[in-house]
Amino acid sequence: MTPSAEKTSVRPVEILNRRPRFVSHRTSGFTESVIREMTRLAMEKGAINLAQGFPDFSAPEEIKQAAQQAIAADFNQYAITWGAKPFRDAIAAKYRKWYGLDYDPEREITVCCGSTEGMIASMLAVTNPGDEVIVFEPYYENYGPDTLLCDAQRKLVSLRAPDWTFDPDELRRAFSPKTKAIILNSPNNPTGRVFGRAELMVIAELCREFDALAITDEIYEHILYDSASHIPIATLPGMRERSVLVNSMSKTYSVTGWRVGWVLAAPDLTDSVRKVHDFLTVGAAAPLQQAGVLALNMPDSYYQKLARDYQGRRDMLLGVLEGAGFRCFRPDGAYYIMTDIRDFGFPDDYTFVRHMIEQAGVAAVPGSSFFANSNDGSKLIRFCFCKKYETLEEARLRLTRI
Ligand code: GLN
């Protein structure tokens, strides 16, 4: 028998049987990411992927060239763990220009591997087991495992359709002396809701009263429609020192695969975030941080065009979906449309999405993956529209098959 044949003689079933002993309790509550599961299913069935939110069009030419030049210029070894200095300087300059927020690149900025790492590093940095973390529901699926990895208790507060607003009394009831933080994601994935100043004031007041932090995922900050505007909660009175602001290059510069994000927080919090980040990942890709300097210095017209282009795609997909019989919740920001599938008469969101992938060749995300209790989202599905017009046009044709 050759060595490779010996290796394959371990039957998978034996490996599966060992699971209970070797797998950590921490991960036992995890489910597979439904968003990424839908991407795999879409690829397997040749369906158009309106599930996972990543562009199918090119990243800006000058940003790609900057990355190529950085590699050629030998930015190929570790950058400083918490981020290359020119990139941290560019981040500081951008927040000063856009929001009048001053963050010290030396003590208050940590570059990490996408906002996914930024969120979990921040949560591991500030929570102790048993601390409570408030999460608005529906929520981006990562926040579930994030709280589990920290052994934190998740407290849910509903965003109510059709406007996806919250009830201030329900939010107040969710706060307690054990509340360590509230997670805020505005513009919101999956609802498209953009919190206004009045709502942010309510949240900020509760954070101050209960001495809690706001951990904010602001990744869709520049993807805004009509008259919506993005207000970082850190700009509200008393919130600068109790905010942990997380963001990344992914959505703003159409480079979701680069995995370059950042965390902005007061020096004591940043100290703690940097320790977690250092031992989790050491650092984000060095040449891509160099390209990030150019990206974050893009002129205002770049961001205006980004929002304008996405608004066109949003309006197109709204038309496509309404034409196919979906009831749509019109987003004010981010690049997703939540839809109500009750009119189609399917038993649940999973069955519907599977049918749509197999029969029509279009993938979306079952709504239940954005809720702790899957019954709550079983009549909803989420489509993304960060796609070429040709892709959305093809979706229009295919959706006539349902
Ligand atoms: N944020 C994107 C979405 O919600 C991509 C998720 C992911 O796979 N990281 O679809």
Structure commentary:
The protein has two domains: about 25-60 and about 300-400, Aspartate Aminotransferase, domain 1; about 60-295, 3-Layer(aba) Sandwich (Aspartate Aminotransferase, domain 2), CATH 3.40.640.10. Helix 6 (about 85-100) packs parallel to helix 12. Strands 2-8-7-6-5-3-4 form a seven-stranded mixed β-sheet, sandwiched between helices. The chain is of the alpha/beta class and about 400 residues long. Helix 10 links the parallel strand 5 and strand 6. The protein has 15 helices and 13 strands. The protein has helices at about 5-10, 10-15, 20, 35-45, 60-70, 85-100, 115-125, 145-150, 170-175, 195-210, 265-280, 285-295, 300-325, 350-360, 390-400, and strands spanning about 50, 110, 130-135, 155-160, 180-185, 215, 245-250, 260-265, 325-330, 335-340, 360-365, 365, 380-385. It binds glutamine. Glutamine (GLN) binds next to helix 4.
* Small molecules (ligands, ions, cofactors) in the structure: glutamine
Domains (count): 2
Principal-axis shape equals: globular
Q: Give the radius of gyration.
A: 22 Å
- The total count of strands amounts to 13
Through-space gap between termini = 53 Å
Classified in CATH, the superfamily of the largest domain is Type I PLP-dependent aspartate aminotransferase-like (Major domain)
CATH fold-type name of the largest domain: Aspartate Aminotransferase, domain 2
The oligomeric state is single chain
What is the number of helical segments per DSSP (H or I, 4+ residues)?
A: 15
- If classified by CATH, what would the architecture of the largest domain be? 3-Layer(aba) Sandwich
Biggest sheet record: 7 strands, mixed
* Secondary-structure element string: HHHHEHHEHEHEHEHEEEHHHEEHEEEH
